[in-house]
Write a structure and sequence with these properties.
Radius of gyration: 24 Å
Strand order of the largest sheet: 2-1-3-4-5
Distance between the termini: 69 Å
Structural class: alpha/beta
Number of helices: 21
Helix content: 40-55%
Shape: globular
CATH superfamily of the largest domain: NADH-ubiquinone oxidoreductase 51kDa subunit
Number of strands: 16
CATH topology of the largest domain: Rossmann fold
CATH class of the largest domain: Alpha Beta
């Protein structure tokens, strides 16, 4: 008789609210009662507000139970848990949960579904078929498919991936590299981590496809130091893929070699910038490089290098498997495909929502997020991390589209969405942006290094009521200087949140 499969997520946010303790309680109950179960530690489906969300497989259907605590386990078993029995924590079949089934799951379609460390489980759900197909159709066809898809960098800059890859492919060099920027440091962002913990082999496959397309045989994952569980999962996934012949020498007899190493950063926010990341990978201090030359021509160790973030690379296997045209069918205008939006802050139902570009902030916050957790009116939303603009309630119907957001002085960035209710002091949020830049600046250029410190001082004087008009003008001038003269986006984008507060929430400076 087949063992009953029980799924309990091994994912950072789920573990933080007791998933490991729930798994232990299930294992202990099963041993004590003599019940034969197979406990599978999967990734999180992204409905973080329901964690720990566990599932039991009944007649090839997975029945979900949400917000399960260790103390619930005995009662679950007593109420026929193994048969999907009724219980206060029962949510029903996982495929019927509206939060999940209304999404456009392209990159995250396996996250929560599979055992992240099983090559067999990954392969059963189209895993490695993209790499296999890439090898069959050839590198030029892979480059064409990625270009046709319209995929743009999901790390924040939104640069066309096909152009970047083709530049590296056309570069003449004895060595090329694929680097994955997994230094996910923006506030309210966790999609990279959830992908790496829930479907790590998808990232490995995407990196291998990139290597095949551009002629690189070596890849590096630059991982955020604050992700210890992610590191353990990625390490085991790389070993499993190598053992199965999907990484290493002569992959599946194709004569294509590709190895991946993990490099753990030291907690520097600026190393999320591609050239600072490359400096860190080389063992140097993470300081932004002057450009040109571009990393695509002279990147890691002076060699042509692809620099993409996790979601960009993880989107590729399905693009190759299903076709660039199909991916381009999602989204609007030049914003093609899907993005994993992350709902955080003062939100009732926080979590990850993968949708095609074109959805509005209001649809995400109200439809998926359920509004503010406090129940109070929404005042502002910050999109794109700590250097993203604060968007007022009046602009929540702006479609999530790179160009549409640029028109209102905002950015989508990594897709992090942080919600604030009407109790927030926006003057303090503007101050935080300058203070954050002052702390995290690499110090290479004067506008960022000095401008951010002066920005904090000027905002403090405005808040204190000292020469408000003169200091207001000085703050605007300072923002102009930082935006126009900073070496990288660290200083260049710090004015975004400050300007948005001055424009939409100026009254908070007078409180």
């Amino acid at each position: 008789m087949a063992r009953t499969k029980i799924y309990v997520p091994r994912e950072t946010s789920a573990i933080s609210v007791g998933a490991d303790d729930v798994a232990i309680a299930i294992a202990r109950h099963s041993k004590k009662s003599g019940t034969d179960v197979q406990l599978i530690r999967n990734g999180s489906w992204g409905a973080s507000w329901l964690e720990p969300l566990i599932e039991v497989e009944v007649d090839q259907q997975r029945i979900a139970y949400g917000n399960v605590e260790p103390g619930d386990v005995d009662g679950l078993f007593q109420n026929g848990f193994l048969d999907g029995g009724e219980h206060a924590r029962r949510l029903g079949p996982i495929q019927d949960i509206e939060y999940l089934i209304t999404q456009d799951r392209w990159t995250f379609f396996r996250v929560g579904l599979i055992d992240p460390l099983s090559v067999e489980s990954y392969a059963e759900h189209q895993g490695f078929s993209g790499l296999q197909q890439a090898i069959e159709i050839g590198s030029e066809a892979v480059l064409d498919a990625v270009t046709e898809s319209g995929l743009r960098g999901r790390g924040g800059a939104g640069f066309p991936t096909g152009i970047k890859w083709r530049t590296v492919a056309n570069a003449e060099a004895d060595q090329k590299y694929i680097t994955c920027n997994a230094d996910e440091g923006d506030s309210g962002t966790f999609s990279d981590r959830m992908l790496m913990e829930g479907d790590p082999m998808c990232l490995l496959e995407g990196m291998a496809i990139a290597g095949y397309a551009v002629g690189a045989n070596k890849g590096y994952i630059y991982l955020r130091s604050e992700y210890p569980l992610t590191y353990k999962i990625l390490t085991r996934a790389i070993s499993a893929a190598e053992h199965a012949g999907w990484l290493g020498k002569n992959i599946q007899g194709s004569e294509f070699d590709f190895d991946i190493e993990i490099h753990v950063g030291a907690g520097s926010y600026v190393c999320g910038e591609e050239t600072a990341m490359l400096e860190s990978l080389e063992g140097k201090r993470g300081i932004v490089r002057y450009r040109p030359p571009l990393p695509a021509l002279e990147g890691l160790f002076g060699k042509p290098t692809v620099v993409n973030n996790v979601i960009t690379l993880a989107s590729v296997p399905n693009i190759i498997r299903l076709g660039g045209e199909r991916y381009a069918g999602f989204g609007v205008n030049r914003s093609k495909g899907t993005l994993a939006f992350q709902l955080a802050g003062n939100i009732k139902r926080g979590g990850l929502v993968e949708k095609a570009f074109g959805i509005t902030l209001r649809e995400l916050i109200d439809g998926y997020g359920g509004g503010t957790a406090s129940g109070r009116p929404l005042k502002a939303v910050q999109v794109g991390g700590p250097l993203g603009a604060y968007i007022p309630e009046s602009q929540l119907d702006t479609p999530l589209d790179y160009e549409a957001f640029a028109e209102i002085g905002a950015l989508i960035g990594h897709g992090g969405i942080v919600v604030f209710d009407d109790l927030v002091n926006m003057a303090q949020q503007a101050r935080f942006a300058m203070e954050f830049c002052a702390i995290e600046s690499c110090g290479k250029c004067t506008p960022c290094r000095i401008g951010s410190v002066r920005g904090v001082e000027v905002i403090d004087r405005i808040i204190a009521g000292t020469d408000r008009e003169e200091n207001y003008d000085l703050l605007v001038e300072l923002c102009d200087t930082m935006e126009d003269a900073s070496l990288c986006a660290m200083g260049g984008m710090t004015p975004y949140p400050v300007r948005s507060v001055l424009k939409y929430f100026a009254e908070d400076f007078a409180l």
